[in-house]
Amino acid sequence: MLTSLDDASLQAFCELLGARTGLQVRDKDRASVARALADRCEALRMTATAYLQKLRIDKVDGVEWVHLMPLLTNGESYFERDKGQFTLIRDTILPELIERRRGTGDQTLRLWSAGCSTGEEVYSLAMATEAVLMRGWKATILGTDINAEALKKARRGVYGAWSFRGVETATRDHFFRAVPGGFEVAASLRGRVTFEFCNLSADDWPDTERGIADIDLIVCRNVLIYFQRAVVAGVLSRFARTLRPGGFLLTGHAELHDQSVAPLKARLFPASAAYQKEGEAPSSIVPPHPPGFTGVTTPLFRPVTPRLTPTGTGSLLTNEQTVKTPTLRPSISRPSASPPIASKPKTADEWCALAQRHADSGRYNEAVECCRNAIGIDPSRADAYLLWAQIAEEREQLIEAKELLKKVIYLTPEQAEAYVQLAAIYEREGNTARARQMRVSALKLLQSLAAPSENDTELKRHVQELLGEGDNSTSSGGRR
Q1: What residues does each domain of the chain span?
Q2: DSSP secondary structure of 75-143
Q3: For residue 213, pLDDT beyond 90
Q4: CB-based burial label for 180 (10 Å; 0-12, 13-18, 19+)
Q5: 307 contacts 270 by C-beta, under 8 angstroms
Q6: What's the pLDDT at 254?
Q7: For residues 103 and 71, what is the distance between their CA atoms, to the nearest angstrom?
Q8: How many CB atoms lie within 10 A of CB 5?
Q9: Segment 1-12 mean pLDDT
């Protein structure tokens, strides 16, 4: 039985992967990629040479690539993962797109989640559109990914409680219904979305027949950072051709820091940079309040006046500039109950509550400062360290995030979520052995609970899946 690949075979595969998908295998990921390839060779009883030849012949959406891609891509996702960007979408971008289209007779917005993984981002976009669309308007949302197995789950539309961490229970219950095994997306959302296979590195899009054309908003987060530099340039060029005039592209906060965004222009907002196709933005946009909207108006979807940029205007950079993108994106798990927000916090509880409010609103620097104040009053506040750690991770400050999570574990050794989040960071760094140790520790803690909550049960299921199926995966593509 084949248990490892020699360096020449591994290098040949890395070159093939780059040529076919645009993904680059980082040095720290090579060992886990080699294990994934060896597993497939053993399953098919093929030599490395024969297996590579099979991959060269097979299409990327063919049977063997479909088996292989889940082993090479990280499909971790959950709803409203970047609250700051979703607030920007709901309160500023969507209203601006509607205002731009007003009076044209075209009342359809087209959104595309490019690299949608298991679909949480697509359905989050659908929920955001329901909060702002006026009567007579509609939205269609396309989700694409290179991982065919992830697309199957997205089409099924059933998610466990762990996918809803940070989402208000009322919001979840409005848009989903409880079914055996989790929560199923409501028909009102399902009718707006479609899922399709798409290899972003290929040059066969834009494509009107596939619906990858005339898009108002493209969201492509945590995908481009795994592409070769030349591939990123090509993808950005095709994104620009795919967008309608005035349309927007949103990416992860650190993905385009050294890339030219031409022919798009960068508009800077407190929560994120957004890249817009040529076309002047309306000078003043007030988000519409949809007549007759009967949805749940939780803090997650409440229409509010859009935030201004730091200078008070939607400032534009020239299309020749590269962008040092703000690293601001929260993915914060809420406590089960929070004290009232104090106008002038005095206690650690009040500072933590204010920190959560700032994080939910995209004011992440303020959230971190509140965490510091809470810890200054009570150094044992593990929840403050956890919130701070999650913000640091989303800012790609992985070293700081690891240290903060270690403090959480020191203060509350029974905090299984901290082990799981620490494992995710180790895996992103290519330290799969350490990631596994963290997950094993988390699983032991969860199995020892006498009366586990719904969230505990779902987290345990999530960890079991990662230990049983995801140990050989890397973060070489996919997302979240």
Answers
A1: 7-60+67-72, 83-276, 348-479
A2: E---TTSSHHHHHHIIIIIHHHHHHHHTTSS--EEEEEEET-TTSHHHHHHHHHHHHHPPTT-EEEEEE
A3: yes
A4: exposed
A5: yes
A6: 67
A7: 48
A8: 22
A9: 72
Which residues, at least 6 apart from 453, have a Cβ–Cβ distance to it below 8 Å? none
d(CA 93, CA 99): 10
pLDDT tens column, 88-100 = 999 999 999 999 8
Q: What is the pLDDT of residues 457-468, one digit of tens each?
A: 878 887 887 787
Residue 476 DSSP SS3: coil
| Structural element, H or E, at residue 442 | helix 432-447
131-144 b/e (C-beta count within 10 Å ≥ 16 → b): bbbeeebebbbbbb
Quick: pLDDT tens for 195-206.
999 999 887 899
Write out 241-259 in H/E/C secondary structure.
HHEEEEEEEEECCCCCCCC
Q: Are 316 and 307 in contact (CB under 8 A)?
A: no
- What 206-214 contacts at long range (C-beta under 8 Å, 24+ apart), as own/partner pairs, is 206/238, 206/241, 206/242, 211/110, 211/140, 211/142, 212/112, 212/142, 212/144, 212/242, 213/242, 214/110, 214/242, 214/244
Are 333 and 159 spatial neighbours (Cβ–Cβ below 8 Å)?
Answer: no
DSSP-assigned letter for residue 285: -
Helices and strands per DSSP (H, E), number in the chain? 18, 12
Helix (H) or strand (E) holding 218: strand 215-220
pLDDT tens digits for range 236-264: 999 999 999 999 999 987 677 777 888 89
The dihedrals phi and psi of 436, each to the nearest 5 degrees, come to -65, -40
CATH T-level topology, domain 348-479:
1.25.40
Place of tokens 């407190």: 270
Q: Which two tokens stand for residue 46?
A: 């093929």
The superfamily CATH assigns to domain 83-276 is Vaccinia Virus protein VP39 (3.40.50.150)
Residue 271: predicted pLDDT = 76
CB atoms within 10 A of CB 467: 16
Q: Which CATH number fits domain 7-60+67-72: 1.10.155.10, 1.10.10.10, 3.40.140.10, 1.10.10.60?
A: 1.10.155.10
Asked whether the domain spanning 83-276 has the same topology as the one spanning 7-60+67-72, the reply is no
Beta strands at 273-276 and 265-268: parallel, antiparallel or unpaired: antiparallel
- DSSP string computed for 383-439: HHHHHHHHHHHHTT-HHHHHHHHHHHHHH-TT-HHHHHHHHHHHHHTT-HHHHHHHH
Q: What is the pTM of this model?
A: 0.65
Q: What angle do CA 28, 445, 456 make, to 5 degrees?
A: 95
Helix, strand and coil content of the chain, in percent to the nearest 5, comes to 45, 15, 40
